[in-house]
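Job type: complex structure
Entries:
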Amino acid sequence: MAKVIVVTSGKGGVGKTTTSASFASGLAMRGNKTVVIDFDVGLRNLDLIMGCERRVVFDIINVINGDAALSRALIKDKHCDNLFVLPASQTRDKDALSLEGVERIINELKETFDYIVCDSPAGIEHGAFSALYFADEALVVTNPEVSSVRDSDRILGILAAKSKRAVEGLDPVKEHLLVTRYNPSRVAAGEMLSVDDIQEILRIPLLGVIPESESVLQASNSGTPAIHIDKSDVAEAYKDMVARFMGDDVPMRFVAAEKVSLFKRLFGGH
Amino acid sequence: MPKETPAFKIKNANLPLFVLHAMTPDMTQFKLQLEAHLGQMPDFFASAPVVLGLAAIAESDTTPDFADLASFMRQRGMSIAGVLGGSMQQREAARNSGLGLFPDTPTRTTRKHAPAEPPPAIEPAAPVPEPPVTEPVPAPEPAPAKAAAVPPRHPTLVIDKPVRAGQRIHAEGGDLVVLAIVNAGAELIADGDIHVYAPLRGRALAGARGDTAARIFAQCMEAELVSIAGYFQVFEEGIPAALRGKPVQVVLEGERITLSALASVR
């Protein structure tokens, strides 16, 4: 059964698109037929990060409006045979994303793909809402700073109240926490929130921690998802995170050595 | 005559009502200032029934001439539905002038159990009928009247999922119990008490309809704001260190919000 996963955060600039690209690539590298959809209509970025911007002819709005068949809008990824990109429109705005249209596309994609990754725009308006509405699972991307954590909290509230699963009274959307731009030494210096601090507020299971790294910038400028940057800790962290998502038991790396207190906080109260 | 068609029915209603608090027992001065005030905004009360609050003059030996006061106010477009608070003599005099008696400020007992003193058989927010009448309206059978006066007890609202930034939970007419974390930017509102058996980091507003006896209980107090019956307290510098993160209860004492550690009483 195909799974729909939204990559969301509330706040902008925390690494949603970087994560969507690497997460979708990681799923595909493990043999899953995967499609990643850019919901950021009007500010399309995913195609740049995936390095396929010059191959965009039709986009999600064309498909919703019936101007193009879905198969014509899907772009095959240059790294993985199992991965396709459905780009956003650059010339329209988010109101063009009708829930009926999105549902039609997702249902059609479910027939072919194992995983449908929805890259949400920032904010809590219509674009973000249409990206999360059909989700079965959610990757909540958070930076170790208070405003990002609060916005993630807000998005979690919306997932719990307004997603299709919530509205129809089905099992709730499964939530995963992904902390990005994590710098253990700055955490130790008290300049950043620790993973413990973030979990103390958000209280959802931790799927992974992606370290702060120069290689992310290089990756996006070269149109290569960060997971493909060989021997970088970011690529390793994304691979770990995908493995955990697929059910493997992988120890958490790139985190300050505070495991004990983390579990104490998680299970031992305050 | 046909018994089948009921001539009236009794329903509980929560209607908005102004309370006109008398701040001085000197009714001449009271009328003078009220007159001047109404002169500035003549339509302010526009025949709306008001309740005369006597709490501030309850200690005074004087008893206002309620019949005179009622006619003074009626001439100016106001009608007194009844009095609130006051001394025994004052309330007795009000009753004799045909005014209704509202129980003293609503207390826990009136909210949760039958009131100790049966309230007068008068619809709380009904305009005062014609000139002062000694007999209250149709005089229904006492039993249903008494039942109608007890506000319905709404079941406690229990929330077992995190309450997150931007979410607002409102327990209308009753208590609110939250078993999961209440994060900064979330808001809890209850007409009764609020209990949080997890960290409380957002806002909590108990007694939202004016129940000054409502309380807030938090197992781990880190709230941004607490309020009881409209009186509120913000914590710009955080909760005082002695209480931060501790089990705390919040009560209203007079007009002051007080926080205290929840310790078991032996």
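Summary: Residues 146-162 of chain A form the longest helix (17 residues). The mean pLDDT of chain A is 93.
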